[in-house]
Amino acid sequence: MMGWVSVALLAVPLLGALGLLAAPRALRPVLHVYGLVVSGVTLLLAVLMLVRFDYGDSRRAQFVVDVPWIRGLDLRFHLGVDGISLPLVALTALLTFLCFVYLGAGGGRGPGQLMRPKSGGGRPRAMVFTLLVLEVGMIGTFLALDLLLFFVFFEVVLVPMYFLIAIWGGAGRRAAAVKFILYTVLGSVVMLLGLLLVWAQTGTLDVLALEAAHGRGMTAGVQTLAFVAIGLGLAVKTPMWPLHTWLPDAHTEAPTVGSVLLAGVLLKMGTYGFARIAIPVLPHGAATVAPWLGAFAVVGIVYGALACLAQRDLKRMIAYSSIGHMGFVLLGFATLTTVGINGALFANVAHGLITGLLFFLAGAVKERYGTADMPSLGGGMLATMPRLGSVLTFAAIASLGLPGLAGFWGEMLALFGAYQPAAGLPRGLFLTFMVIGGLGAVLTAAYFLVMLSRVTHGPPAAPVSVVRLAPAGVAALGRTGDAQGADGGSAPPRRAGLRPRDIRGYELASWVPLIVLILLFGLWPKLLLSLTTPAVQLLLGVAS
Fold first, then answer.
1. Which of 73, 211, 227, 312 is placed for a possible disulfide with 280 were both Cys, Cβ 3.0 to 4.6 Å?
2. Mean pLDDT over residues 402-422, rounded?
């Protein structure tokens, strides 16, 4: 009955992107408002979905649309949400809207905003178009209930994210963008082979029918082969160690909004695929591969933490932290338990909120100082910019898993799931995984505390050089000369000895919703867990 909401969630950003092609000159003066309006309408539709969702039956697909797509191949345009996908749809709509708030609020001409000219390619209309197309692909991935439709939306996001990095990124943007596209396309090819194998064995691409069958019609060997193929494709996007090497470069070179959406949503598309497709459709394959998945997960947790301790660049450190956090998500999935998978799904949402906020903050730091190199920042941010330093401290302690904040629950539940994995899995091995994961959690606290000691604490080492926008035609040099800007191009000139400006209004507007939700889910985890638990029990074939 409410299926039109699912269609509208895709149609609004798509029509918004097409409108930019139809009337480019007429819309140029209001581009900063245009993106806000289109993404705002999409967010309102997501809120409507949250309001009208039947929380008493969250295991059932709702807002369903199921119409013929390609009749000759019996492919259908099948959309819908349940307790697993609904939070991710809402998260995607929220983060996209907040990116447009960051880019366009208050006229859009502030530092790092959409309408400020930047050498190296401002192209505001192209950026709005790219972000709206990206939103279509991200939301579509979480709505799709047909395997081929899922794959189409899964691939749609690659092109706009490639251009976000390649056009608006930093000095190494081209190499980072090429690395991103090569890794993800190769992973997708392997995943497509696995999806086609499922289709050949079962004769259907309908996700709901495949989930209900729980692997019937496929032998254990076929399920294992299909799980490995699909899992490899998903693991690249997650990213799982050792398939992660594209991620640090992509995050480091991407513009601020690109990093926010890459960490906040695109990584979730890989982990979502495990919950939506790989585990419920291929249960025997999942049980066979689970010990290996858990092993790669805990290696990623420890590797990510150790790599973070070695980083000097703030954005690169946050990027490596995502590898560790996604390791906890994969460990939760590997347990094949209601507790563990609930923890993985909770960590998915918490990571999107916290790391999205961290990348917003990293962009703000780089815009002010002209660099994200932590030793070069000189420390003392709490003295020079107390509000920015306080928000950075809050985001860091949320990411390290402090109880009472959203980052705690997902990691704790994933470790608890490893303590008592599903029947048939080697408990001794998973207890080892739990211990290693716990060590990784300690290392996570260590690298965030080291970062805070370098950036926010202590007295400023020297008079701060503040990034300022010089008048057109005026040349000036800061302490690093012709440095790279926060979002690509040359950094604006600097004038030394001035106190940097603290949080601006448009930054506050784009960060406060994330701070509120981090606190809300940290203090009231049942808000998410009561939504996901029935759906997780269904995908595991457990009676409610």
1. 211
2. 92
- For 128, 274, 426, the CA distances from 99, given in Å and listed in that order, are 10, 27, 44
C-alpha neighbours within 13 Å on the C-beta side of residue 384: 25
Q: Rounded distance, CA 100 to CA 102, Å?
A: 5
Residue with tokens 């289709």: 199
Please say whether the beta carbons of 114 and 125 come within 8 A: no
- Which pair of tokens denotes residue 469? 């926008």
Residue 431 has what DSSP assignment? H
Residue 359, both tokens: 């990348």
Residues 6+ apart with CB under 8 A from 138: 92, 96, 153, 157, 261, 265, 266, 269
Joined tokens for residue 288: 């066979």
Give the total residue count for the chain: 544
As to burial, measured by CB atoms within 10 angstroms (0-12 exposed, 13-18 middle, 19+ buried), residue 299 is: middle
Instruction: Map residue 171 onto helix, strand or coil.
Output: coil
What is the rounded CA–CA span in Å between residue 305 and residue 301? Answer: 6
The whole-angstrom separation of Cα 511 and Cα 533 is 29
- For the chain, helix (H) and strand (E) counts, in that order, are 24, 4
pLDDT in tens, 420-442: 999 889 999 999 999 999 999 99
What does DSSP assign to residue 458? S
CA angle at 132 for the pair 126 and 138, rounded to the nearest 5°: 135
The 3-state DSSP class for residue 462 equals coil
Phi, psi of 194 (to 5 degrees): -65, -40
Dist CA 317 CA 296 (whole Å)? 20
In this prediction, residue 493 carries a pLDDT of 40
Report the pLDDT value the prediction gives residue 518, as an integer from 0 to 100: 96
DSSP-based three-state secondary structure for 402: coil
DSSP secondary structure, 6-57, as one string? HHHHHHHHHHHHHHHHHSHHHHGGGHHHHHHHHHHHHHHHHHHHHHHS-GGG
3-state secondary structure of 137: helix
Cα–Cα distance list, 102 to 99, 240, 265 (Å): 5, 30, 17
d(CA 74, CA 206): 10
| Assigned token pair, 70 | 């390609």
The yes-or-no verdict on residue 470 having pLDDT over 60 is no
First to last CA, the chain: 26
What Å distances lie between residue 231 and 12, 25, 391, CA to CA? Answer: 32, 45, 36
Look at the block and give the residue holding tokens 């939504």.
Answer: 531
Residues 260 and 360 sit within 8 Å (Cβ to Cβ): yes
